[in-house]
Amino acid sequence: MTKIAVLGAGSWGTALANTAAENGHDVRLWTHNTDQAEEINTQHTNTKYLPQAKLIDKLMATSNMALAVSDVEIVLSVVPTKAVREVAKQLGEVLKKQSHTVILAHATKGLEQGTYKRISEMLAEEVPALYRSALVVVSGPSHAEDVIKHDLTAVSIASSDESAARLLQKVLSNNTFRAYTNDDLLGSELFAALKNIVAIGSGALIGLGYGANAQAALLTRSLVEMRALGLAMGAKEKTLYELAGIGDLIVTGMSPNSRNYRAGLGLGQGKTLEQVESDMGMVIEGVNTTKAVYDFAQDYKVDMPITVAIYQVLYENKPIREAISDLMGRPLKSED
Ligand SMILES: NC(=O)C1=CN([C@@H]2O[C@H](COP(=O)(O)OP(=O)(O)OC[C@H]3O[C@@H](n4cnc5c(N)ncnc54)[C@H](OP(=O)(O)O)[C@@H]3O)[C@@H](O)[C@H]2O)C=CC1
Ligand SMILES: O=C(CO)COP(=O)(O)O
């Protein structure tokens, strides 16, 4: 039995914590909301984020971070990108007082606003090296809504520390949830962030009334952009064709369970970004990531016309049909 703290009781933190608890591990789910901790402990539900789900009775929630992480081997952070640094700071303070070392994992898919740092870079800055033995990322095609229903799911667990990745793999895997390890932390984090941008575009196509041809074209041509930026930034090419790459691109770009896809759908149906964001009530990571990647593409001199088009729709009020028409009207070229 492994002791693990999961930080963040949104849909994904709750689903991952529940999976580890179902697998027989000692799981403490930390939330900054005391009422939510009380609901999880007494009703075994998280109605705000997973309204239909019944959680396993022994899943313990707490709003006390020191209690959550005391004696744990693994801390798995699953808060949205905008909260990562703040939560990691709190974690760093707590670990300093407890003076013990943890495997520090995360399952967040984004880039920090302003600095454009990857999540593991923020974690490494806020949690002193003395208190973490390894950095690990959990990624891959995995909607919380499907995982909580025990729909079949495969994820990737990346780290340069193979034994740490293996421990996470063992803690999370079961008959319906299968984790694979890989050693490309940078690629796994970067592709996880990039696919959210594409999912917004994919939802928008459906919202506008386009079909599967259009979606397949978008996903495939986006893969070319992801490859170009990924290679420029140091990702391994093979990761693009694995669960953290194409796997996640497919599920997020095709599933109505995706928040990014649903945001795009709303935009395609004529809603404003503000309406879409306020209706969602959950994090839509791709909106901020689009801005980061738009800037990255210029810094790294990578041609990313689809990302630019989505940026123009989100940040420059360009009508979506005009953005599509401009994309389709570019000079003809070869695929690569
Ligand atoms: N949902 C999914 O299926 C998947 C999500 N992910 C990724 O996981 C990350 C989290 O997503 P998800 O669970 O969907 O997010 P949700 O929007 O469902 O939940 C976010 C959670 O984080 C909490 N939170 C927000 N700000 C803070 C803060 N400053 N301090 C502490 N807690 C905070 C929220 O609390 P409050 O209710 O108080 O706002 C809420 O519990 C994202 O990066 C997402 O891309 C990855 C794979 C699958
Ligand atoms: O990353 C995800 C599935 O793998 C979740 O994507 P959304 O945040 O778009 O729901």
From TrEMBL:
Residues annotated for substrate binding in this entry: 109, 259-260
Amino-acid positions noted as binding NADPH in the UniProt annotation, renumbered to this chain: 11-12, 32, 49, 109, 144, 259, 283, 285
Segments forming domain Glycerol-3-phosphate dehydrogenase NAD-dependent N-terminal: 3-164
Keyword tags: Cytoplasm, Lipid biosynthesis, Lipid metabolism, NAD, NADP, Nucleotide-binding, Oxidoreductase, Phospholipid biosynthesis, Phospholipid metabolism
Enzyme Commission code(s) on record: 1.1.1.94
Pathways per UniProt: Membrane lipid metabolism; glycerophospholipid metabolism
Reactions catalysed, as given in the entry: sn-glycerol 3-phosphate + NAD(+) = dihydroxyacetone phosphate + NADH + H(+); sn-glycerol 3-phosphate + NADP(+) = dihydroxyacetone phosphate + NADPH + H(+)
Name under which the protein is recorded: Glycerol-3-phosphate dehydrogenase [NAD(P)+]
Listed GO biological process terms: carbohydrate metabolic process; glycerol-3-phosphate biosynthetic process; glycerol-3-phosphate catabolic process; glycerophospholipid metabolic process; phospholipid biosynthetic process
Cellular component terms per the entry's GO annotation: cytosol
Residue positions binding NAD(+): 8-13, 144, 259
Keyword Nucleus: no
Gene name of this polypeptide: gpsA
A GO molecular-function annotation: glycerol-3-phosphate dehydrogenase (NADP+) activity
Function of the protein: Catalyzes the reduction of the glycolytic intermediate dihydroxyacetone phosphate (DHAP) to sn-glycerol 3-phosphate (G3P), the key precursor for phospholipid synthesis.
Superkingdom, natural source: Bacteria
